[in-house]
Amino acid sequence: IEIEDRVACFDNDGTLWSEQPMYFQLAFAIDRIKELPSEHPEWQEEKPYKFILNGQFDSLKAEGIRGILTIVMATHSGMTTEEFDQVVADWTSTDKHPKFHRAYTELIYQPMLELLNYLRDHNYKTFIISGGGIDFMRVWAEDVYGIPKDQIYGSSVKTQFDYNNGSAVIRRMPEMNFVDDKEGKPIGIQRFIGRRPVFAAGNSDGDLQMVQYTTSGEGARFGLFIHHTDADREYAYDRPSSIGHFDIAWDEAKEKGWTIVDMKEDWKVVYPFEMGESQ
Q: Contact at 8 Å (CB) between 69 and 133?
C-alpha cells in the first residue's frame, strides 16, 4: 500500500474507549442539564430534557446520538469555542466513571493504543470518525490517543464568526450542522479526508457503513469490530443494547470475514491502569 494511501479510521465510543453505562459525552451533557433547570422550566415537559430531570435514563439512551447532541446544543450554545473547551476540560479532570471510579479519559483501551502506535510506526495516518461531538473530543483526545486535532472528526453544531471590539471568536449555535453516524461516516470521510481508508475499526451498527466503504475499495483492506464480551473487566453487550448496538454489523462481519475481537478472550489487558496494578 502506497504511503499516501495508508489511512486508518477509528470509531471512538466503544472502539477506543468505553461507552457504558452510557456514552461519556451523554454523562457530560446530563451534568450540564442538572445545573440549569431553573433557567429552563420548559425542560420539565420536553424530551430529551425531561428524561434527565426525571431520571429516565433508559428512555434517554434510546434517543441515541441525536438526543445527546440536542442536549449539548441546548446547554452550550452561545459559548465561544474556547469557553466550551474549558467546560469540557473541567469535566474530564473532575468527573469519575460510576463503575471504575476513575477519570473517563483513563478508560481507553490499551490494545487499541498499541494498535494506533503500530499503524503510525508503519506510516499510517490515524483518524477518529465518531458520532460523538467533534469539539468535545478534540479537547482531550489528542493527548490521550496521540491523534492530532485535525485528524479528529465527529458530529458538529453550526458556528458563527464573531468579531467584537477587535476580538475574533467562533460561537456555537443551537442548530445541528452534521451528524457523523452510520451513513454519515463515509460521507464525512470523503468530505474531510478525501481518501478512502484501507483500515477501519468500529464496534456497532453505527460503524457498519464506514467499514463497508473501507473494505469495498480495491487492493488490501481491513475491517475490524470490537465485541464487548467481558462483563468483569469492562461490559458485555451486543445485539439488544441501545448503546453500542451490534447486530446487523455482527452478521455482516461474520459473512465477509472481517476481524472480530473478542474482548474477554483476545485482550490480556483492557485499560492502561491494569498494567500498573499488575506490576
A: yes
Cβ 180 vs Cβ 188: under 8 Å:
yes
Residue tagged 442538572 (cell numbers): 34
Q: Which three cell numbers stand for residue 58?
A: 433508559
Identity (one letter) of the amino acid at 127? F
Question: Residue for cell digits 469495498?
Answer: 216
Q: How far, rounded to the nearest angstrom, does the alpha carbon of residue 128 sit from its chain's CA centroid?
A: 8
Residue ranges of E strands in 3-133:
7-10, 125-133
Per the listing, cell 469555542 goes with 81
Residue pLDDT, tens place only, 207-231: 999 999 999 999 999 999 999 999 9
Exposure class string for 133-144: b at 16+ Cβ within 10 A, else e: bbbbbbbbbbeb
Using DSSP, state whether 130 is helix, strand or coil.
strand
Looking at the whole model, is its pTM more than 0.90?
yes
Q: How far apart are the first and last CA of the chain?
A: 39
Q: pLDDT at residue 8 above 70?
A: yes
